[in-house]
Amino acid sequence: MALPRILVARRITEAAAARARRDFDALMAEQDMNAEQVIEAATRHGAEAILLGTASKLNAEAIARLPASVKLLANSSVGYDHMDAKAAQARGLIVTNTPDVLTDCTADLAFLLLLAACRRAHEYEGIMRAGWGKTLGLPDMLGVRPSGKTLGIVGMGRIGRAMAQRARGFGMRILYHNRTRLPPEQEQGAEYFATLKEMLPHSQILSLHLPGGAASGTVMTAEAFAALPRGAVFVNSARGSVVDEEALLQALTSGHLFAAGLDVFHNEPNFDRRFAELPNVFLTPHVASATIETRDAMGMKALDNIAAVLSGKPPIDPV
């Protein structure tokens, strides 16, 4: 019996790649494919499903050009704002993603960004890489203490709640803004604000955990940054698209923000290099899910969805 034909349009971990080769007639990408490459490869292979990532920016026009053989677009990530999911669904394609598997690792990285921004990790490491050589006095190179601070969380989904759990270990007061209020058992004492505007003035540290795309829009505008208390710390491990980067740069250079920890940007990987020139910004290259365990799980979950759909079962994680 012939194996189902699939296109793996992005590089995946070796464990996931071995399963793809074993369980499917898989055409494996050597590099992450763009939209044109996806269309060409899927057509040539007669792919019934495509496992894809952020490089495959499938807009409505690209989706319309996919071969008729394609039944499923399986995103190997939680986010899917790199594609027009509504256009895909209107064409009758199933769209899936990979919720749950990257919750803990993303929250871990977000908390790393928080700690590194508060405690000037970028600057401290720079001193050591340069050879140190000069004792620091009591008033020198002072960070801010994260323990006991008030943390505002924007987006209290799985990752936002995991971030809150980590913050409780640091004795933080936790505020949150969400489209809807959580039940008490999920709040665990966190304080709900119906509007972001109401929450911002109380947030000594602000961390974003909401999805990108048109549904969210630009959340952190110049007005939003101005509403934060002076000396606040800003963390973003969610989506670059929800932040006005010019406004963020202004808030950082003016001293209104003490520091920022950033994993995501508008134009990746060619991000605005002005952020790299600022000493009070701790930067990581969109690696919140980058652990062996999580990246294996992301690939496997995408393949789980493909296996289910191509065997005639409902998708496990429909968008």
From TrEMBL:
Q: Which cellular component appears as one GO term in the record?
A: cytosol
Q: Which residues form the D-isomer specific 2-hydroxyacid dehydrogenase catalytic domain?
A: 7-319
Q: What are the entry keywords? A: NAD, Oxidoreductase
The Gene Ontology terms for molecular function here are: glyoxylate reductase (NADPH) activity; hydroxypyruvate reductase [NAD(P)H] activity; NAD binding
Q: Where is the D-isomer specific 2-hydroxyacid dehydrogenase NAD-binding domain?
A: 112-288
UniProt keyword Oxidoreductase present: yes
At the top level, the lineage of the source is: Bacteria
Record's PANTHER family?
A: 2-HYDROXYACID DEHYDROGENASE YGL185C-RELATED, 2-HYDROXYACID DEHYDROGENASE-RELATED
Q: Which family does it belong to?
A: Belongs to the D-isomer specific 2-hydroxyacid dehydrogenase family.
Q: What name does UniProt use for this protein?
A: D-glycerate dehydrogenase
Q: What is the lineage of its organism?
A: Bacteria, Pseudomonadati, Pseudomonadota, Alphaproteobacteria, Acetobacterales
